[in-house]
Structure formats: C-alpha cells, structure tokens
Design a protein that fits this description.
Length: about 190
Amino acid sequence: MSSEASTIPKRGSGLKTIPKYFIHGFAFSIIFIVLVFVWALIFAVLIVIGSFIGFILGFIVLFFFLGGLNSFLTDLIWSIPIKTAWKSLLGHGFLLFILLIIVHIPAVLIEFIVPGLATTIVLFIFNAFIDGFVAKNVAGWWKKEGFEYAEEEKTPKGFLKKCVRCGREIPVASEQCSYCGAKQTEE
C-alpha cells in the first residue's frame, strides 16, 4: 500500500502552479516561434532535395524540436527530468504537436470570428496557460525512471510533520495531506 501511494503524482497545489503554467507556455510559445523560422528553412531545403522524403524528414525535425524544447523547459521550470533519447523526443514532440493543434482549434475559430490585434494578444496570453498545462503533462509521460512528483521527498526531515489522519510525513506548512487529503489542524 505504501509503495502504491508514493507513486501517485502530486499535482500542482492550486494558485502556486498557475504562474508556472503561464511561464512554461509563454516561454514555449516564444522560443517555438523562433524555432519555426529555423525549421521552415530546414524544411524548405529538405523538400527541394527530395519532395516526399524531405517533407517527412521536415516533420521529424519539427517533432525533435518540440520534444527537445519541451523537455528543456519542463526540467528548467518544473524540475522534472525528462528522457532525451531520440525515440522519446520524437514521440514526445509528435504527441505534443497533435495535442497543441487540438487545443488551439477554439482560438483559431475565435480569431476567425473576431479578427484583430487585441484578440490575438488576449488569445496568446490565454493560450500560454493552456500550452503550459498541456506541455507539462505531455512531458510527464516521458519523465525519467525513479522520479516522483511529490514535493515531500525534497523537504528536509526537520521541516516535516505527521499527517493527522494517515501518519505519513508531509511538509510542516501543509494545510492538507497530499496522500490522504485530510485537512491538517493547528497544533
């Protein structure tokens, strides 16, 4: 039972993670815009060299860019180490590409219905949160073996207390147990 409970990922604690999702999505979007120009040049050269094969290779390069960029940002912002083997980056980038296309469909429709600079800016800011959320969760599927999300494992023993219900160690400042969900009372 205890080994099962320790493998349950601890999701973000409410308002504290919202800025991180925004930063992740914003950084991802800005860096990706720059990388798209590099990719477009590579893509054009590959298509000129060998039409269909160049087209396929161009998308493979794009998926590597996406997977590598998101792995870097996830490790930097969330301190979650991500696998960087070529198969992992390719799968990571492909899945992220598909999911980002799906989640951006409403934004494209809104931009089509209400075109304008203000709409574009508002949608970019709003989508930064969505992109950060999607990117972090996709990266989590490629986290390195043995990594756990629980913040309690990083907390020094002197800053831990026992949960009032299940007795597991949690940070002293916790208002709720991340294992059983019990509200913690003041002692």
